[in-house]
Specification:
Helix content is 59%, strand content 0%. The protein has helices spanning 2-8, 17-21, 31-51, 55-67, 76-92, 95-111, 116-131, 140-154, 158-182, 185-191, 194-210, 222-234, 242-259, 266-273, 276-279, 306-326, 333-350, 354-378, 388-392, 396-401, 405-426, 474-477, 488-503, 528-534. Residues 429-436, 442-483, 495-530 and 532-543 have low confidence and may be disordered. It is an all-alpha fold.
């Protein structure tokens, strides 16, 4: 049909997809005569798409709509309805249907005028958050695919994406701040669940892809996202949440490597190695260790299992080695490696497992050899620490040739971890000793560790500790003295400017998003992240006041 419409407008069929996207039918002289036919075709196709149940037919219709996207230019109402229908298919369809849906969504966001891109970005992230509540061996591939889709949409126009991304990251920080302030089981579960972790990992992936250069508009968000991830990892200092901590450290290492920003993950790993449960002798058990990519916490009884201790300790050492290896060519490496080396020596004395002691000593030896190598190299330089450009080019040739002593150990531990993960997936280790039900990452038991309910006050306060929390209660309002008397939009703009300054570039908001309404008890706590990040699209309904009973 798009070929017929182009022919009626006096144009030949497009020979390349880019040529079809650049076509402007509403600017043609014959458009007034063709416009009713185009409206009828698009409206009837949209109606048919809503009635179909066959995935193959739905994919065919979306492929034809994809070729006809330029004809949506003057039909804002049809554009809005079509985008809503395709987003619904993207969130609930089968894999092949999701692929065709995101292709159509991307084409509409790139070709059609505003606010199509903003609606597409909100809708794609909303569908991602709705599908990220539970994770198992089958659904994890879909979560990864939808994360890639979010990265693609938010990279189309980073200037428009910045305001939305900042709003959503700030709302994740509000959930974290509520958990730090309230210290209740419900507040902790709002953070320690798959939906929160997947949303946080999604924004890390967006920054990995679109914030590599110093001039990228999304680069100021690196610091806030890193602070939220660090705060979430420290929320409950317990060995039971080792899978969650290792997962967050892994994504922070990836963020640091792709953007060049230093993220202090070593204290998280050293604290994990210092937990008493990991220094005790393991107890033999018949249960196989869980797949750490599918769980956020382990049972208290499993902490003494040899397989679980091995995964935690070796995973922590591998991530610590990768972190040190990222800065193995920095002039400050000797100072960076001093504290980890000291704490690893303490771990060697405390642990009762010989292989853990040998692995930790190998990391210490490699760090010391790398520190001596850097010390010798930097003694012969002729620049000061203030010369950033020369410091950045320090040992550039050696970096390209990978001559640092840490390189060999880091690669060996990475290959070993990769083999372990492959072996774990090959044996089909499932959740809860064979249960294939999806997990939301929260605990179904009310028996928590004593240290799960203890939190060190003020130790992990970060940039977000002064923000106004819409759902934090009266205790949070007393802490917001800095923003007393200011409107919510003014507070958000001030926080955006602060985040931009911390990131190293000017990062003020070009749009002023509306803050989400307050949550009520009737809303429940099932979809905490989804409700917060998208409640700005919905107006809060006023509840009628109960009528007072008359007394006779």
């Amino acid at each position: 049909m798009d070929t017929i419409l182009r022919g009626l407008l006096g144009h030949e069929p497009a020979g390349h997809p880019d040529e079809a996207r650049m076509f402007k039918p509403h600017q043609q002289s014959r458009w007034k005569k063709v416009e009713p036919l185009a409206r009828s075709f698009l409206g009837n196709t949209l109606h048919l798409l809503g009635q179909l149940t066959d995935p193959d037919m739905s994919r065919f219709l979306m492929s034809r709509l994809n070729a006809s996207v330029p004809f949506f230019h003057t039909f804002e109402r049809l554009t809005r309805k079509s985008l809503k229908a395709v987003l619904a298919l993207f969130g609930s369809g089968e894999p092949a249907l999701r692929v065709q849906s995101i292709l159509l969504i991307r084409n509409m966001a790139a070709v059609l005028p505003p606010p199509t891109l903003e609606r597409a970005a909100k809708g794609v992230y909303r569908q991602f958050a709705a599908n990220a509540k539970f994770v198992n061996a089958e659904s994890i591939e879909h979560v990864v695919f939808m994360t890639t889709c979010v990265c693609e949409i938010y990279g189309l126009d980073q200037h428009q994406s910045y305001s939305l991304a900042f709003t959503y990251v700030r709302q994740l920080a509000s959930l974290l701040r509520g958990a730090l302030s309230n210290k209740s089981k419900e507040a902790f579960r709002a953070v320690y669940c798959w939906q929160y972790v997947n949303c946080l990992e999604c924004w890390v992936r967006v920054l990995q892809t679109h914030a590599k250069d110093e001039t990228d508009p999304l680069r100021p968000l690196i610091y806030p996202v890193a602070q939220v991830a660090l705060g979430a990892a420290r929320l409950l200092p317990s060995a039971r949440y080792a899978p969650l901590r290792l997962r967050l450290v892994r994504v922070l290492n990836a963020l640091s490597k792709s953007t060049g920003h230093f993220v202090p993950v070593a204290p998280l790993l050293l604290e994990l190695l210092g937990f008493a449960e990991l220094n005790k002798a393991p107890v033999q058990t018949k249960n196989r260790p869980p797949d750490f990519s599918l769980v956020l916490r382990v049972a208290k009884a499993d902490l003494r299992a040899p397989g679980v201790q091995e995964i935690i300790v070796e995973g922590a050492l591998q991530l610590l080695t990768a972190h040190l290896n990222q800065w193995a060519y920095s002039p400050g490496f000797p100072e960076l490696a001093h504290v980890p080396s000291r704490d690893l020596r303490r771990f060697c004395k405390a642990t009762q497992v010989t292989r853990f002691r040998k692995a930790a000593r190998a990391v210490v030896d490699a760090a010391e050899r790398n520190a001596d190598w850097i010390a010798r190299k930097r003694d012969s330089v002729d620049f000061a620490p203030k010369d950033f450009e020369k410091a950045r080019n320090f040992l550039r040739n050696e970096r390209e040739a990978k001559k640092a002593p840490m390189e060999k150990l880091a690669q060996a531990l990475f290959d070993k971890e990769k083999q372990r993960v492959a072996a774990m997936q090959a044996t089909d280790v499932t959740l809860s000793g064979g249960d294939k039900m999806a997990s939301d990452g929260t605990s179904d038991s009310d028996d928590d560790d004593d240290d799960d309910n203890v939190r060190r006050g003020g130790e992990d306060d970060d940039e977000f500790s002064d923000e106004d929390d819409e759902g934090g209660g009266a205790g949070d309002e007393e802490d917001d003295e800095e923003f007393d008397g200011m409107e919510d939009e003014d507070v958000l703009a001030a926080l955006a400017s602060r985040a931009g300054a911390a990131g190293g570039t000017a990062g003020g908001l070009t749009l002023r998003p509306t803050l989400p309404p307050k949550r009520t008890d009737a809303d429940g706590d099932d979809d905490v992240v989804e409700a917060m990040v998208f409640s700005d699209d919905e107006e809060e309904e006023e509840k009628p006041k109960p009528k007072k009973k008359k007394r006779y």
